[in-house]
Design a protein that fits this description.
heterodimer, A: about 375 residues, alpha+beta, Jelly Rolls, 3 domains, 19 strands, B: mainly alpha, Rna Polymerase Sigma Factor, Chain: A, about 0% strand
Chain lengths: ~375, ~200
């Protein structure tokens, strides 16, 4: 009796294996009959049956409805991710990760700005065939520039969007707003173009002034936090300062040379809890004290947060509520993680870096949302 | 779970439709292979949550990356391989201790109930085979599983485990030789049973 050849030959035969698996629960006589018809020794068939069953191991009981539900849930999740990516690629070109340069050496005070600029960019009046000697704000914001690439973010949603600039400065872009910056950002100075409303947290760097261009006015920052509100359809444009010093000037009065050469570009200077209103019809800048300043939901003066062994989910919830930015993380995985520190005026990007370093997590901004990938803590 | 054979052309069609963004094709493929993922996964860990997470991540990634997927010779092999990679990735993030990709002994505990037991000698054979499989090294056991349960070709197993096809063949041969020695001890029982 050549046990080896026969058993192994049967085992190698895929069609026989299939039959064995299909019929493993049939009674003996079915097996004997099949063995007879196939001309297989019953002994080997029995060996095969036992061997293959052992190879299979425990039977798996999974409800068909369960599988269907799980597949649908995966598809749903995938589409969600996709819609963000699609949106990014269509409207936004997020600043790539490599841009995230850590400039912590520079900054002493972070600046936050809120800028409200008009929605007029939606009505695009093309003037492509009229080259102007000086590139206007409208052109900077609305034309696609052949000679220089740029990053543009639009937020049509109710929820705020987070944009991290190449130097780590953070912009919280609000509903119906558009922000654009060019590759030359952070070379001589840091220029951003805004239409709508945004809250800026600017990394301090006296060598490279931070300038927010809106339709009518320019806001210059060295190291402060402020808000600018300038919707095209509104009669007024507002700049509100949260911390530090801000300089506001009408665009037509701006001398390009002054941007880098002078600390003061003229116009009006503002300090903490002051605001300036620009009356569009009268072309006037009016300065006033802010009685009850509202900067997002950051209700204290220096947007500081104190955490003491705070569960990480609470940390994220607090930040998320304060900035109006969605933070996506796996609560289960990081359920045992806590965070202890006081976070001050640093931009949200910097805050997230501190937190993630403490809990050995990573984070990235996609579609204006923050995604945290963490590990379980002990 | 073993996958019911479907005509290769039909499977290729499903795969291609899925790559082109057909949700129905994706759903069909995923549903078809779901049990296979779970079954294979359970050979590595008893934590079904980890396996479920790995399957979710795999399916999400497949859909998101569908456009960059290419034609494949065997859909089943592609998915099995992708799942294995995802599972190890998931296991690594879950476990605090470094994870070794051991093909564990999670089989045969319930095997005595799982199929029709005719008599005692059969039960005895079964426990001996169960023992035989248990004492095999993890890798050998996984190879036998992939070859004879999942019907993978030797070349596919080699690619999956990143070893030479010749090594796969050798391991199978050695394991079966070993098994035969076990069988020889068992033959008298089997003959008794047949009589």
């Amino acid at each position: 009796m050549n046990t080896k050849k026969t058993f192994e030959a049967l085992l190698e035969d895929a069609s026989i294996r299939h039959w064995v698996y299909e019929n493993r629960n049939q009674p003996t006589h079915v097996w004997e009959e099949w063995a007879r018809v196939q001309g297989i020794e019953g002994v080997y068939l029995q060996q095969l049956r036992i061997f293959l069953s052992e190879l299979e191991g425990e039977p798996l009981v999974l409800d068909e409805n369960y599988i269907q539900a799980r597949v649908q849930s995966a598809l749903q999740k995938a589409k969600e991710i996709e819609s963000i990516k699609f949106y990014d690629s269509q409207i936004i070109e997020e600043s790539p990760k490599t841009f995230w340069r850590i400039v912590s050496d520079y900054w002493v005070v972070a600046a936050s700005i809120m800028v409200f600029v008009g929605l007029g960019y939606l009505v695009y009046t093309a003037k492509q065939n009229q080259p102007l000697p000086v590139v206007s704000f409208d052109q900077k914001l609305n034309l696609s520039h052949q000679e220089e690439s740029f990053v543009e973010t639009t937020n049509p949603n109710k929820r705020n969007k987070m944009v991290v600039l190449p130097d780590g400065s953070t912009v919280i872009l609000q509903k119906g707003s558009k922000l654009k910056y060019f590759d030359s950002y952070n070379t001589q100075n840091r220029e951003v173009y805004l239409s709508g409303e945004a809250f800026f947290e600017v990394v301090k760097n006296p060598q490279k002034p931070f300038l927010v261009f809106t339709k009518d006015i320019v806001t210059k920052v060295l190291g402060t936090s402020f808000t600018v509100k300038a919707f095209d359809d509104d009669k007024e444009v507002k700049v509100m300062v949260k911390t530090g010093k801000v300089n506001v000037i009408q665009q037509k009065n701006l001398n390009i040379k002054d941007i880098t050469e002078k600390t003061n570009i003229g116009g009006i200077s503002l300090t903490a809890n002051q605001q300036v209103t620009y009356q569009r019809e009268e072309h006037k800048l009016i300065k006033a004290e802010l009685n009850n300043p509202q900067f997002l939901s950051l209700n204290n003066n220096n947007q500081s947060f104190t955490f003491k062994s705070t569960p990480i989910s609470d940390v994220f919830i607090q930040l998320s509520q304060a900035y109006g930015i969605e933070i996506v993380f796996d609560e289960k995985v990081m359920s045992k993680c806590t965070f202890t520190a006081t976070l001050g005026t640093e931009p949200l990007d910097e805050k997230m870096k501190w937190i993630c370093a403490a809990i050995d997590a990573e984070y990235q901004v996609s579609g204006g949302r923050i995604f945290v990938e963490g590990r379980p803590c002990r | 779970m073993r996958i019911k054979e479907i005509p290769p052309l039909q499977e290729q069609l499903l795969w291609n439709n899925f790559r082109a963004g057909d949700e129905m094709a994706f759903t069909q493929l995923s549903t078809r292979y779901y049990r296979m993922f779970r079954h294979y996964g359970e050979k590595f860990t008893t934590n079904s949550q980890i396996i479920e997470d790995a399957i979710q991540d795999l399916l999400v990634n497949l859909w998101v990356k569908r456009a960059s997927l290419t034609e494949v010779e065997s859909v089943k092999f592609y998915l099995l391989k992708a799942f294995r990679n995802q599972l190890f990735k998931t296991l690594r993030t879950f476990s605090t201790v470094p994870f070794e990709d051991n093909f564990q002994e999670n089989f045969s505990e319930a095997s005595s109930e799982m199929f029709f037991i005719e008599n005692e000698s059969q039960q005895e054979q079964q426990s001996k085979i169960s023992y035989f499989l248990k004492q095999l090294p993890d890798r050998q056991r996984e190879i036998l599983y992939l070859r004879f349960y999942q019907d993978l070709r030797v070349e596919e197993i080699a690619q999956l485990l990143q070893i030479k096809p010749q090594s796969v063949s050798n391991i199978i041969q050695r394991a079966l030789l070993n098994l035969r020695q076990h069988w020889e001890l068992l033959v008298p029982f089997i003959l008794l049973w047949l009589l």
